[in-house]
Design a protein that fits this description.
By secondary structure, the protein is mainly α. It has two domains: about 55 residues; about 60 residues. The chain contains five helices and no strands.
Length: about 130
């Protein structure tokens, strides 16, 4: 019976953790929705309501920086490769190489596709000069 504790806990944690996260996120957003509804009941100006909604919105307005993400992914791949080389074996070396190759592709994509407003403006100006 004692030898079944670890597998059962592993299976249960795979079920309990996602449910706990979804419940936590639901309750966190539920309070925000209630607050917005209470404020909206007492507001007469719909423009101010839009401004209020922008305050509660937590999304990033900046584009994804593929160069930064590429460098991080490359080093994660290198770390996995060395971990496999020193400890685990060939399988983890291959996984590390694959992750590093994905990071290299992401890094190259970051240089091929400009993503900030300044980079886009510079690219358009260079194109217009031709």
């Amino acid at each position: 019976m004692d030898h079944l504790i670890i597998p059962v806990l592993g299976i249960l944690s795979g079920i309990i953790i996602p449910i706990a996260v979804f419940t936590w996120l639901y309750h966190e957003n539920k309070d925000k929705r209630k607050t917005v509804l209470e404020i909206a009941k007492h507001m007469d100006n719909p423009e101010k309501l839009d401004e209020l909604m922008l305050i509660f919105e937590e999304r990033k307005k900046e584009p994804i920086d593929y160069r930064r993400n590429g460098v991080i992914t490359i080093f994660v791949g290198i770390g996995l490769y060395f971990f496999g080389f020193i400890w685990i074996g060939k399988v983890l070396e291959g996984i590390g190489f694959l992750v590093a190759a994905i990071g290299l592709g992401t890094l190259i994509a970051g240089y091929l596709y400009p993503n900030t407003e300044k980079e886009l403006t510079n690219a358009v100006e260079k194109f217009e000069k031709r």
